[in-house]
Amino acid sequence: MKTIIITTLTVTTLAFAACNNQPASHEGSHTDSTATAHHHDAAPAAAADITTVKPQFTDVDPAIATAMKGLVDGYLQLKNSLAADDDAAAGKAGQSMSAALAQVDASRLTADQKKIYDNNEEDLKEHADHIRKNVGNIAHQREHFVMMSDDMYELVKAFGGGQPLYRTHCPMYDQNKGAYWLSESVTVKNPYMGTKMADCGSVKEMIDTGKP
């Protein structure tokens, strides 16, 4: 599996105070540590603008745009399932993402588009499959969701996804190593910490993905 290194854009952050002074997460490779976390109400978002990122490609084939929208829809379903601690629904969402990937007709991609898509397709398939197969092991589903979120970030930056998306950061996941995810809303619903710390996180970037 490739290693993805993402350079975070300099943005003005919509900050939430939910994670301040919280105990560290101790989620291991296959264990869910949210039982020891404590839920705090989120502070209101700071009244500040954030940088809006537009998709790289403006010449996306309509069939590709539609397929990407389906992929984003499955991803958001998965994100919300993990935020609700619903491993069964997360498994179904993983299956939906696999189906969405099968709808992408790579012959409609330009050479530059194909490079980005090919760089993420196999990883996404693998993560979706692992999440589908690991109903009953939400910690493992979340591990794959971390890497899946990085792949999805690369795709929506390139192709769009049919709606504005917000790149959000959890500083506490995996013993404070942190992890990102994409959301349809500035309201934080943390897929890594679940219902015990639902509002832990801060919005870092908005991707104006447009419509297919």
Automatic annotation (TrEMBL):
Keywords: Signal
Entry keyword Signal: yes
Annotated DUF3347 domain residues: 72-160
Source organism, top-level taxon: Bacteria
Any matching Pfam family: DUF3347
Signal sequence coordinates: 1-17
Entry-linked InterPro entries: DUF3347 (IPR021782)
Identification of the protein by name: DUF3347 domain-containing protein
Native source species: Chitinophaga oryzae
